[in-house]
Amino acid sequence: MEPLTAAQAAARLGVRTETLYAYVSRGLIARERGAHGSRFDPLEVERFARTRRRVTTPSHGGARPAGADGSPLAVIDTDIALIEDGELWIRGLPLEELIAREGEPARFDDVVRWLFTRTDAPSKDPHPLLPGDVDAVRRVLAALPPDPPAFTRLLAAVATLAAGDPERYDLRPEAVARVALRLVAGLVDALPLLAAAGEERTDHDAVAPLATRLWPRLTTLPATADRVRLLDTALVLLVDHDMAASTLAARAAASARAHPYAVVAAGFGALDSTLHGAASAAAYAMLREVGEGADPAAAVADATRRSGAGVPGFGQPLYPEGDPRARLLMRLLRDLEPRAQDALRVADDVVAVVRARTGLHPTVDLALATVALAWAMPPDAGELVFAVARSAGWCAHALDEYGRAPLRLRPIGRYVGPDPADVQPAGSNPGYAGPMR
């Protein structure tokens, strides 16, 4: 396992090297001396980074800067998601009930409709897309450079769908609900079918469940009922997660009365990050290395060093005892997919290493990566599933925000820079006061 240099370890902890060595002298973190200086175990550094309580210099009046200890900068009312005591509820329903309502597996389409209408009644319009929507998006996607990243494709799709939607500026609840269904369906149907799956012609079945239509765009494996059920469940589990960074960005846009397409685009801007929606791709690369024969501890160390932000797929701080979304998704994968045993074995080996060295639990990003590996999906498959699902949640947050005072999410900055009176304009002559104005 290749160790970290002192500079790399200090950067991960967000401290100076002098502070790092102070931790060493106090016995808080171990090091090994070598011919080229001190070296640090990357997993021990990660453990310490997760458990250390940040201490900052008091600011004006002795008050600590907002959020300096990891506490929230603001509290925003929401009636969609609640995270409490290590569990997640959506509109008052715990995850276990949400994914199997009344004993039947939940369908993402029904959950989205329920988010907006509080009823499971079928939509009056089973064809939410407008004529020409899909063809227009596919033409735009075809014009992108070869192999564009997942979020690049999705942003292009959102912009194209917005351009052709005459209802995009209508912020009434019924219009927002229609636009949300149209947007999510457009994101899925515009994605290209994979070669071997093209014969299924599911792109012409506009009333098929969304998970059924998404499946052949992620893998060439046959779409069995159990596989589609698991994909449907993943979409439901990811529909919302309280005030994640992307949701805050989406709500801020809605606070300024941006239309739903712009709200989703704002959400994508924050989601496109290795600390958020793209975390599953990094976890996928780590799992694939182990599946190809790499030592699990070495693969974890390499992935941690590459990410610069911890072990990919581990350590959701809102769930000290483990991410319930990961637990439910991994359990379903074990129960429903015999083909997944190799991928699950790889994931178990990685989980064992990380738990032993850091005490961290897997997140839903590791579960998505395991699913993608089991089903021979591309590395960005987890990002696509995450983005499609969360788009619906952002639209629900937008609808809530449209009913509140506009621009309420425009915070006031507290200036902590130099006194303007002490700063000379660039290129100015200190002896010349300038004209009186």
What is the topology?
Blueprint: E1 4-5, H1 6-13, H2 17-25, E2 32-34, E3 37-40, H3 42-51, E4 81-84, E5 87-90, E6 93-94, H4 95-98, H5 108-117, H6 133-142, H7 150-163, H8 173-189, H9 210-214, H10 225-237, H11 245-255, H12 260-271, H13 279-291, H14 296-307, H15 324-336, H16 341-358, H17 364-374, H18 381-402
Antiparallel strand pairs: 1-3, 2-3, 4-5, 5-6
Record keyword descriptors for this entry:
about 425 residues, mainly alpha, Multidrug-efflux Transporter Regulator, Chain: A, Domain 2, Citrate Synthase, domain 1, Cytochrome p450-Terp, domain 2, 3 domains, 3-stranded antiparallel β-sheet, 6 strands
Structural account:
Residues 53-64, 66-70 and 197-204 have low confidence and may be disordered. With 437 residues, the protein is mainly alpha-helical. Helix content is 49%, strand content 4%. The chain starts with a strand and ends in a 35-residue tail after the last helix. The strands form 2 sheets. A 3-stranded antiparallel sheet has the order 1-3-2. It has a 3-stranded antiparallel sheet with strand order 4-5-6. The longest helix has 22 residues, at 381-402. It folds into 3 domains: 4-52, Orthogonal Bundle (Multidrug-efflux Transporter Regulator, Chain: A, Domain 2); 82-276 and 380-402, Citrate Synthase, domain 1 (Orthogonal Bundle), CATH 1.10.580.10; 279-374, Cytochrome P450-Terp, domain 2 (Cytochrome p450-Terp, domain 2), CATH 1.10.230. The protein has helices spanning 6-13, 17-25, 42-51, 95-98, 108-117, 133-142, 150-163, 173-189, 210-214, 225-237, 245-255, 260-271, 279-291, 296-307, 324-336, 341-358, 364-374, 381-402; strands at 4-5, 32-34, 37-40, 81-84, 87-90, 93-94. It is built from 18 helices and 6 strands.
